[in-house]
Design goal:
alpha+beta
Length: 971
């Protein structure tokens, strides 16, 4: 309890603790006997590098990586390796710099990687940065206890898990509002950090504490139920635990460097800077007077000018930022090391190094010339007077996880304000990423471990001694249950006091600057890349499933029938309500509509031609155009009666393949014509049910809950020797089945003691080696197909249990029935959560389409403060108002998130060669006999013909299927 009391004490005591635990690094001690140097980049930072030198460098880097023994460093390398193509494609050349001593020997010490916006390894694959720099893990999204619990009535519990490790649990019932329905929010406090989850609330069946805990990993089986803590002081303790997540405000070092300066002593000894330096400093923020400064001070003296008379300060998205500017910190002519400057800049996690003299000077920078074990990220900046632009290169210590935004190619910024915003976001994300390195995470874990143990002893001791008598002794299996009548008044008084103390703590935290209080920003007004466009403003039916048709139409199934929706203009019915469709796909490559209708034994798959519905678009809508159950008879696919679900191959493959689940059987089928053949002879591909050929039947151990077709990316380069596979999920595991041999191999099992709810298996197909994103409960797991020992080291967790997952690199989106959560696939960091009532994903085949009843869900419009000088707004930024008057009968609005806005590029499947598939047992129909022989021997030409790149090209974001009424991923 000594640690807790110290943390509850004054700011002085808190600072002492931070110094003791390493949250504020000690002044680095220089040891010249261990001075390190990095091989200069030289040509690698300039165009025209020598390929032979590059190849030799890559071999040396691989050899160096193999010799690394540190688990923390290997974790970082593994992450880069697992995201190899991701890293090269969106994070430029993330290269590890070889580090050597003066005698040329390798040094087993700190090494850095450089991100310079160039794809040195794959010059043919260079892509720009995502359109908008976004903050990762923003505090207003991640500090749950401060935002959702503190100052509100909630419950807190203390207990020990199966391994006798202490934990705390906080549960609050979020009230219903116009955005979404009521739900539980729960935080599990453990020494490894806070785990968060949202769970649906049912008034008729409230959840127990044990049921809530079972949704967290390894918390399903507890020897004893946790005990509720009624003392209002627990709020202060839990707020203290949350503060260990990291800083709300930031301090960054800014170092001025003249041409020819290489050591930190030389850089720190510059008393004044150039006009370009002054221009850059004024771009970062406002110059403020330190004496009497009453906002965030970043460790600077505000009473007696001990750390200089002025500094540079700004605020971005609610984060206050103080820059430690080298030329504004105290200068001493007699002190070569400039200790007063070094003790601030050297103790900043992120430093900006400004090079005077242009880009040629940047290649001379050596990150180890800054003698600090505390600084993990260097942003190297120079100003180019020739074209009035800034150039940026970022160095990160090897163990720092990858962070965004990725640098554009080339990393040149010609608009000063855009560069400022990009740089600030990169710096903030860099410090948050560095906070997860072993240097900080191990110290944070030790601090949390001591805090939780002390708090556990304190509160359990109070309970055993009867201190803070529980006014309401309700069973701790109930959450938010009604108190007994005899103690109602006492309980109400306790609740009032509990809320009062929480509100006082919240106000005190805001006054101290330890919590985000505003989303005001000095950044530019920019549309978020995930901001949807209104596709159709007034759709009166709840969506069951659907798919996009070309670039301007949707085919949507509802309980009232199936409709074709035109972009913003009209919708027309094509099937009546007697046909209950559970799964639907539009396959433009072959001009067919594929769907699964009915359920149970009556469930069947049907195939129609799209041309049948296209001809009706120009005709008057009548009941004669609407098909009924009688029209399905001739379009029923044989062998599919009683199917529970199906999945099809992604667009861009050589053949359309389908796997159908019937109980414990899987049926493999393939369209008789290749996509390339259909592209050459579209008028000849007019089949419906006859177009599918049965290939084989595969027995499985039990009925699957989801299936995904996985294309082998090595099939073409390996001469067709590799086989395509099917990923099958059931109960607690995912298996992989070879399509040709029917051989079953185990892929991944959900950890024992964890409640399993399988959500999706998404084929990422970005890397040269196939990889699946397996989603279960609120966990996303990356699984290489070739790995024999699955590792969960790179897993990340959502704040709720999703029903659908969509990958649109660099983002990954999760949908529930009332919210959307967006994270970065490269590191799992949260970037946005949006609440939307009655949310339903429609499709993600091309762009992402979804339906919701709320037009006012844009947080960027209602919460963020921007200076917008434009008198007229673009009407495409906001959806039109609803024509309905009654809020209870709100229509569904259909929205579209353009894929190019998320990724800033054409999806990779448009560039991939089609995957050869096993030939059907029969030779095919007469038309297939006339297919050109190049269909099987020159696959590189087929993709261009079958799937032309462009706005209407199919991109195949994800292809997972589940047995729920609404497929998890509808394409």
């Amino acid at each position: 309890m000594f640690l807790v009391s110290r943390l509850r004490g004054s700011d002085k005591n808190r600072k002492l603790l931070e110094e003791e635990t390493g949250d504020i690094g000690p002044l680095p001690v220089r040891d010249r006997s261990k001075s390190l140097c990095v091989e200069k980049l030289g040509q690698l930072l300039r165009p025209g590098y020598d390929p032979a030198t590059l190849a030799a460098r890559d071999l040396n880097l691989h050899a160096l990586q193999r010799r690394r023994a540190s688990s923390a460093i290997s974790s970082s390398n593994d992450l880069i390796s697992r995201r190899g193509v991701f890293s090269r494609r969106h994070y430029g050349s993330v290269e590890l710099l070889p580090q050597k001593e003066a005698n040329g020997q390798d040094v087993h010490s700190r090494r850095f990687r450089v991100e310079n916006g160039d794809s040195l390894g794959e010059k043919e694959e260079i892509f720009g940065s995502p359109s908008t720099p976004v903050l990762e893990n923003p505090e207003y999204q991640t500090r749950w206890y401060f935002k959702y619990f503190l100052g509100k009535l909630h419950q807190n519990y203390v207990g020990a898990d199966g391994e006798k490790r202490s934990f705390f649990l906080s549960v609050v019932l979020a009230e219903a509002n116009n955005q979404c329905g009521p739900q539980y929010r729960a935080i599990l406090w453990k020494k490894t950090g806070a785990q968060k989850i949202s769970l649906p609330y049912s008034p008729n069946k409230p959840m127990t504490v044990k049921q809530i805990l079972s949704n967290f990993p390894n918390m399903e089986k507890l020897e004893k139920g946790p005990k509720e803590i009624f003392s209002p002081d627990i709020q202060k303790d839990l707020l203290l635990l949350e503060e260990q997540e990291g800083s709300v405000n930031f301090k960054f070092g800014v170092l001025y460097t003249k041409p020819g300066q290489h050591s930190d002593d030389e850089m720190l000894s510059n008393e004044f800077g150039s006009p370009e330096w002054d221009q850059f400093i004024s771009l970062l923020g406002d110059k403020i007077t330190l004496k009497g400064w009453d906002k965030y001070r970043g460790g600077l003296d505000v009473k007696g000018d001990m750390t200089g008379k002025s500094s540079v300060y700004t605020i971005y998205e609610g984060h206050e930022i103080m820059f430690h500017v080298s030329t504004l910190l105290p200068y001493s002519k007699d002190n070569r090391q400039q200790v007063e400057r070094k003790r601030h800049i050297g103790n900043d996690i992120v430093n900006i190094i400004f090079f005077d003299g242009g880009p040629a000077q940047m290649s001379q920078f050596n990150p180890t010339s800054i003698k600090s074990q505390f600084t993990h990220v260097f942003a190297v900046v120079c100003y180019c007077s020739e074209d009035n632009s800034y150039r940026l290169v970022v160095y990160s210590e090897e163990s720092v996880p990858l962070f965004g935004p990725s640098l554009p190619c080339p990393p040149v910024f010609r608009v000063a304000e855009e560069f400022r915003e990009f740089l600030i976001v990169k710096l903030i994300n860099g410090e948050k990423a560095a906070f997860n390195t072993p240097t900080f995470s191990q110290k944070r874990e030790r601090t949390l471990d001591m805090l939780i143990k002390d708090l556990y002893s304190e509160h359990m001791g109070e309970m055993s001694r009867g201190v803070g008598t529980m006014l309401n002794r309700r069973a701790f299996s109930d959450v938010l249950a009604e108190p007994p009548r005899g103690s109602r008044r006492k309980e109400e008084a306790r609740q009032v006091e509990f809320v009062r103390i929480g509100q006082a703590l919240k106000l005190d935290t805001i006054m101290k600057g330890d919590a985000p209080t505003s989303l005001a920003t000095t950044g530019l007004f920019k549309r978020a890349p995930w901001e949807p466009h209104c596709f159709y403003p007034d759709f009166g039916y709840e969506v069951t499933c659907g798919d996009s048709w070309g670039d301007s139409k949707l085919v949507i199934a509802t309980d009232s029938g199936v409709f074709v929706v035109e972009d913003g203009s009209s919708h027309r019915q094509i099937f009546d309500k007697t046909i209950t469709i559970k799964q639907l796909n539009v396959v433009e490559a072959h001009g067919i509509l594929l769907f699964r209708a009915d359920k149970g034994r009556d469930s069947k798959i049907h195939v129609f031609r799209l041309s049948d519905f296209e001809s009706e678009s120009n005709s008057t809508q009548t009941t004669d155009n609407v098909r009924t159950r009688m029209d399905l008879k001739e379009h029923r696919l044989e062998r599919t009666r009683g199917c529970g679900m199906y999945a099809i191959s992604r667009p861009g493959g050589s053949h359309l393949r389908m796997v159908v689940s019937l109980g414990k059987k899987l049926l493999l089928m393939q369209w008789r014509h290749s996509a390339a053949w259909t592209a050459w002879c579209p008028a000849s591909d007019t089949d419906t049910i006859d177009g599918f050929q049965f290939i084989r039947e595969i027995q499985v151990s039990e009925q699957p809950t989801l299936i995904t077709l996985v294309d082998s990316s090595l099939a073409g380069s390996a001469g067709g020797s590799c086989d395509n596979t099917v990923c099958v999920g059931y109960r607690h595991q995912f298996d992989l089945i070879n399509e040709r041999t029917a051989e079953v191999s185990h892929l991944f099992s959900v950890q024992d003691g964890t409640k399993a709810h399988l959500v999706a298996a998404v084929d990422l197909y970005e890397d040269e080696e196939p990889e699946l994103l397996l989603c279960y409960n609120n966990t996303c797991h990356f699984q290489k197909i070739s790995e024999t020992r699955p590792t969960t080291e790179f897993d990340f967790r959502w704040n709720f249990i999703p029903s659908s997952i969509v990958c649109a690199f660099p983002y990954i989106l999760a949908f529930t029935n009332d919210s959307m959560e967006i994270r970065l696939i490269i590191n799992g960091n949260l970037v946005q959560t949006m609440a939307m009532p009655k949310l339903a994903l429609i499709t993600s085949k091309n762009d992402i389409f979804f339906a919701t009843t709320a037009p006012e869900f844009f947080p960027s419009r209602t919460e963020r403060l921007h200076v917008d000088q434009r008198s007229e707004r673009d009407t495409s930024l906001s959806p039109p108002s609803s024509p309905h008057l009654s809020p209870e009968a709100r229509p569904f609005r259909l929205y579209r998130i353009p894929l190019h806005a998320l990724s800033g590029m054409v999806a990779p499947c448009d560039r991939r060669c089609p995957t050869p598939s096993p030939e059907p047992p029969e030779s095919g129909g007469p038309r297939e006999a006339h297919a050109p022989p190049v269909e099987r021997c020159n696959s590189s030409k087929l993709t261009l013909l079958a799937e032309p790149a462009g706005p209407g090209a199919s991109r195949g974001l994800s292809r997972s299927c589940s047995s729920s009424p609404t497929p998890h991923i509808a394409n």
